[in-house]
Amino acid sequence: MYVIARKEFLQLFTGVKSLIIIGILLVTSYYSVKFSTLLVNDIELSPKETENIHVFGLLALLILFGQLFIMGLSHDTMNRETHERTMRFLVSRTSRASIVFGKFLGIWTFWFACIVVSHVLIVIFSHRFDLFIFSQLMSLLTYQIAFTLLVSTLIPKPAFTMFLGVILGLIFPALSFWLVFTSNPWFSWMKYLNPYYYLNREDFTFLVILLLAGMMIGLTHLLFRRKEC
Question: Of 62, 130, 169, 214, whose CB count within 10 A is highest?
C-alpha cells in the first residue's frame, strides 16, 4: 500500500497540470494575505470573518474549484491502470484493498502537502494560523478525493472521466450550495450527504465529512473487488 501511495504521490508532482495548480494555490495564498486588509476596510464583516480574512482567498478557491482541481489531476487514477492493463500486474502483487487505499493515501498526501505549504505562506505574511479552518479544508479535500476515486472506479474509460471531471468539477459547488439552501422537500435531505452543509456550520460537525468520505472509499473497495482487471 505504501509503495503505491508513494508512487501516486510522486507522480502528482511531475505533471504540468500539478505545477500550475500548485502555483495557483501559492499565488492565491499570497494575495489572500496581501489584500486582506483592503477587504476588512471596504466590506462589513463579522468579528469572526475579520479574524480569518487572511485565508479567505484560499478557502474560496478550494470551495469553488477544489473538486475541479482534484478531478483534473486524478480522474484516471484507477481506470488508467485498468485501461493500460497495468492493474493486472498490481493485483497479482498486492491486495485490492492495498491498491484502493494506497491510491487514496498518495493523492491525499499530495493535497495535504499543498495545503500545508499554502498555510505556511499565509502564516509567514499574516502571523496567524487557524487549525479549525485548516481541518475543515482537509475534510473537504478528503471528501473530494474519495469521490474522485469512486468515479474513476465506476467508469472504465479515462477519456470519459476526463470529460466528466470537468463537468462535475464545475457544477459541484453550484449544486452543493443549492442543496444546502433549498427548501424543496424532494431534494433538501440530500444536503446531509453534501460537505458544504457541514462547512457552513461553525462547530465540529465537519467531522461527518470524513465519515462520508470513508463510506465512499469503502464503496470504491467493494466495487473494485468485483471488477475484472
Answer: 62
Rounded distance, CA 5 to CA 108, Å? 9
Q: Give the other-Cβ count within 10 Å of 119's Cβ.
A: 21
The DSSP string of the chain is -HHHHHHHHHHHTTSHHHHHHHHHHHHHHHHHHHTHHHHHHHS---HHHHHTGGGHHHHHHHHHHHHHHHHHHHTTTTHHHHHTTHHHHHHHHS-HHHHHHHHHHHHHHHHHHHHHHHHHHHHHHH----HHHHHHHHHHHHHHHHHHHHHHHH---HHHHHHHHHHHHHHHHHHHHHHHH---TTTGGGGGG-HHHHHTSSSGGGHHHHHHHHHHHHHHHHHHHT---
C-alpha cell at 193: 450527504
Report, as an integer, the average pLDDT of 7-30.
91
- What pLDDT digit, counting tens, does each position of 57-74 carry? 899 999 999 999 999 999
Considering the entire predicted model, what is its pTM? 0.91
